[in-house]
Fold each of these.
Amino acid sequence: MKIAILSRKASLYSTRRLVEAAKQRGHEARVIDTLRCYMNVATHRPEVHYKGEILEGFDAVIPRIGASITFYGAAVLRQFEIMGVYPLNESVAISRSRDKLRSLQLLSRKGIGLPVTGFAHSPDDVDDLIKMVGGAPVVIKLLEGTQGIGVVLAETQKAAESVIEAFMGLKANILVQEYIREAGGADIRCLVVGDKVVAAMKRQAKEGEFRSNLHRGGSASLIKISPEERSTAVRAAKVMGLNVAGVDILRSNHGSVVMEVNSSPGLEGIEQATGKDVAGIIIEFIEKNAKPYKTQTRGKG
């Protein structure tokens, strides 16, 4: 098979591993810089151009689209889908998962456990918004943030009011969530491929930090997850429409709750913590499922 990997850099660990895994299994893999693609949209023969050539003959495309280029990345991926190339994750599913509010609303509608979450544009009563999620301490998140950036833990009512008012003053969209103290600064990253959790790790925040992201100095270790956590992770990925997803779960007093569903999960931390060949499992999934024009959301925007 001929596989395109949409990624800004061939040297990134996840991109490199996917190329290696594809080659090991006898496929041709080519890394394509998403932002260097340009498209012929209004034509009976849709095309993606790249550095002066027309990209054609691909059987599958693996999107590794960073959050900062979601809009353009999804447009490029959509063009590949229109051309009949099989996407590992579909453009609609990626856009859905990148919108934090939309993804929480979809998960909530399907009865998946979530932290109590409030959303407001300019509440007349900040006090009531904080009360709605159980009072301080609360976690305040920018809707557009990634890797733990734009996430603040406000430990007192006063601090929460100040942070919310500061974000509002910047016209930023924010979520206010209950703080799950019993999680102890740890979460579980479940890597879902198809309808299975193929690897899981515990991420622990460093001393004095509540965000467990590895980019923020958190540490990763192997963990055994419960059948409930396994089923929650698989259901969350399905609700988003993602074939491959990193589902972040917190262990709370009221069961496992989903923090986020990531459509381009990094492979480095989880492969090193678990010793699993996650890249190989992803390529194997593509081998079994790649067919021309096979997208669930065709024509649904």
Amino acid sequence: MLPREELLKRVENREEIARIIDQAEQAIKTWEIVLTDFIAPPVMIEVREIFKNLTEIDILFWGGYPQAERQRLGISRSDIPLDKSHIELAALDIAGNFLFDTATHRDFLGAILGTGIIREKIGDIIVLGERGAQVIVVPEMVNFLETSLTQVRSVPVKTRQIEWSELKIRPPQKKEMTTVEASMRLDAIASAGFGMSRSKMASAITAGDVRVNWKEVTQASYNVKAGDLVSVRGKGRLEIGDVSVTKKQRYRINLVRYK
């Protein structure tokens, strides 16, 4: 059995992690690969952290494409091979004419949830502008959504399963840069990375528009570190790279911005 109470110490998403520990124990007992539903990024971070030293099991996340935010987790005994082919997923196309009634990610998600499906059965939603969207789901939801998802906002849609080769994923645009700062404060580094004034960035942080490693941070003075991922609503993501200290005791920070 896994050391449940030890694993649950200091986790924020206790209910979700406890459920995943149950599934890990199931994988150990049954010698089968066990799959979770889709997991949000903050939970994924905690799972990786608490499971990294467990020798009894292997874990693998996959959401259909490399940059997927929401992913399913495969869990197996360490002596059973585990790869992406074991993570069962399906892709759907939601096609309609949205030229005169533009739909957002929230609109498509709302329409899907409106059919009665819970959020955990749905992965990433890729909005395609005026022609609709694509969504990654657990396979058992395909037939239901093909018949039940018929409208988004005021627009009639046709929902159908598609091949993975039809998924329209755009590789993120990447810009590398270096900044030198007096501290590792979030507002200073994020303002440099996103090309915003420090006062505007501080306001965005206070307003709850900024996340570090997928967790909302509302203090401009929060200190980031190498390896952190900063996201600003509507602006993309910023990866904190190598950090070194200059002769003048300032921080030279390598940044990668993804749009």
